[in-house]
Amino acid sequence: MDDLTTYYTKAAALCSKAEKCSTEIRKKLSDWGAGEEIAEKVIKKLVAEKFIDDTRYASFFVKDKFRFNKWGRIKISYMLRQKGISSETITEAMQQIDEADYRETLQKLLQGKSRNTSAKNPYDQKARLLRFAQSRGFENDMVFQVLATMDKKS
User: Fold this and answer.
1) Within 13 A of 94's CA, how many CA atoms are on the CB side?
2) DSSP 3-state assignment of 60?
3) 39 and 71 housed in the same domain
4) How many domains does the chain have?
5) Closest Cα partner for 14 from 86, 26, 36?
6) What is the model's pLDDT at position 151?
7) Fewer CB within 10 Å, N or C, the chain?
8) Are residues 63 and 31 in the same domain?
């Protein structure tokens, strides 16, 4: 077997186990010792045979990170950019997040954090909740809106 076939077989096996983006496969091929020329040929073949699809990858990534990790849009898009996904693809994938679910998830996260956070005063409590939400990648304006509705309820 030639190098191209060997690297293709290994990369295809990797892609069949879990969804991967082209950047991850390019890095793996590099780690395995494949040259740039061979890596490009392998990736083109994987894309042509639908083993790699960055749009599909972004879609699954957005769903998983929102549903299971409870990440906000900022953190998800940042992570996708780190993986070399195009801005258009990221924007398209982000549209899958339902606005009502997004707000509800943020509200539940903040309520849970609020119960487990002790603060000297309401201002300190709000600041801690804001920092927590920012670390999860939620937008400031939405965090302030949710905090305001939580204030009204309490």
Assistant:
1) 18
2) helix
3) no
4) 3
5) 26
6) 78
7) C
8) no
For residue 77, what pLDDT is reported?
A: 97
Here the CATH number for the domain that contains residue 14 is 1.10.10
What are 106-114's contacts with CB under 8 Å, separation 24+? 106/72, 106/133, 106/138, 106/142, 106/143, 106/146, 107/146, 107/149, 107/150, 109/70, 109/133, 109/136, 110/143, 110/146, 110/147, 110/150, 111/150, 114/150
Domain assignment of residue 85, given as a range? 54-94
Q: Identify the DSSP state of 51.
A: S
- Residues 104, 88 within the same domain: no
Q: Between 151 and 88, name the one with better pLDDT.
A: 88
Cβ pair 95, 112 in contact under 8 A: no
At 152, is the pLDDT very low, low, confident or very high (cuts 50, 70, 90)? confident
Nearest Cα to 95, choosing from 58, 130, 129?
Answer: 58
pTM for the full predicted model: 0.90
